[in-house]
Structure formats: C-alpha cells, structure tokens
Amino acid sequence: MPGLRRRHRGGTGPRGPRRVRGFMEPCLLLLLHIKPRHGYELAQALAEFGMNQINASLVYRMLRDMERGGLIESQWQTEVSSGPARRIYRLTRVGNAALADWVAQLRETDQVLHHFLGFYHQHMQEGDGEFHWPSSRSREQEAWQLPPTAEGQECGIRPPLEGDSWQIVTKRGGDESAEV
C-alpha cells in the first residue's frame, strides 16, 4: 500500500517534519547571494531554513555539484592567519538566474500548497464522520500539535478562519502567543 510505505520514509519524528526534497539548493544560492561564504559557514547558516541537523558532507556534496553545474565558483582562501586554507564559495551569473527561477517556482508551489491546505481545512470543517473535526471544537482546539520548542514551549499550527492567515501558536504555562 502506498500510504504505508510513505509513512515509514518521512513524516515527523526525532528529525522533525518532512522536508521538501531539493530545497537545500535554493537555500545555498540565497545564502551565497547575500555574501560569499565558506562551506562550514553555509552548513551552519542552513539552520535559518529549518535544516538544523543537516550533515555537513551533504552540504559539501551539493556545493561540488552546484560548482560543476556553473551555479557557484570557489577559490582557496590562503590569507587565513591561523589554520589551513579554506575554500570560499561565490554565486555566479548562472547561479543568480537559477535562484530567480527557484523563487518563481517556490511562489507557484506556495500558492498550490495554500490552496490545498485551505481546501483541506474547509473540508474538515464542513464534513462530518470519523476523520473530520468535531463541529463543537473551537479554533483554539484546532491547533495541530508540533514537537515542543527547545525552550519547552508547547506549539502548534492553527488553521485560518475566513480572511485570516495560518498561525504558529506557542504556549508556556497558561499564556498563549500566536504568530502569522
């Protein structure tokens, strides 16, 4: 059964929610658009995109592939006062064009995902049966549970009401805060 196999390959678990495959490339391109960086610095900066536990060898493999494809270029930085020379990566014109293409594709994907999630939310509210939300649930109760934050806060995602946006909800003690 396809659904059973997929559940074992992804989902949530100790490493967090499923990630969009191939998302590391546009993240690296954006980071290099901001400024040239060393590979280790790039691996650390991926945490800004939710890739906290990424293996550095995957980052270096991706950088080599991107360099072979002409998206980036690298040079050895030998002026370092201590330690061995390090490779510094820079974006090329081809990489800049690839980043623009990624942004356009991600915008389209964002629209498709928002449409899907809105359709799902409406279906769950209007439908009834074993796999639908009970109509008696309040919006506060609809927040989907996520793993606790590093600070021990409970958190979840609250679906939008009409004309509203999705919210990330965090709770510490009895206090609740929400971000759009």
Q: Count the helices. How many?
A: 5
Q: Might you state the CATH topology name of the largest domain?
A: Arc Repressor Mutant, subunit A
End-to-end Cα distance, whole Å, is 37 Å
Number of strands: 7
Write the layout of secondary structure elements.
Layout lengths: L1 H8 L14 H11 L2 E2 H7 L10 H13 L3 E6 L8 E6 L1 H34 L17 E3 L7 E5 L8 E6 L2 E5 L1
Antiparallel strand pairs: 1-3, 2-3, 4-5, 5-6, 6-7
List keywords for this structure.
41% helix; 18% strand; 3-stranded antiparallel beta sheet; 4-stranded antiparallel beta sheet; alpha+beta; 7 strands; Arc Repressor Mutant, subunit A; 180 residues; disordered N terminus; 2 domains
Write a brief caption for the model.
The chain has 180 residues and is α+β, with helices and mostly antiparallel strands. It has helices at 2-9, 24-34, 39-45, 56-68, 93-126, and strands at 37-38, 72-77, 86-91, 144-146, 154-158, 167-172, 175-179. Strand 4 (144-146) and strand 5 (154-158) form a beta hairpin.
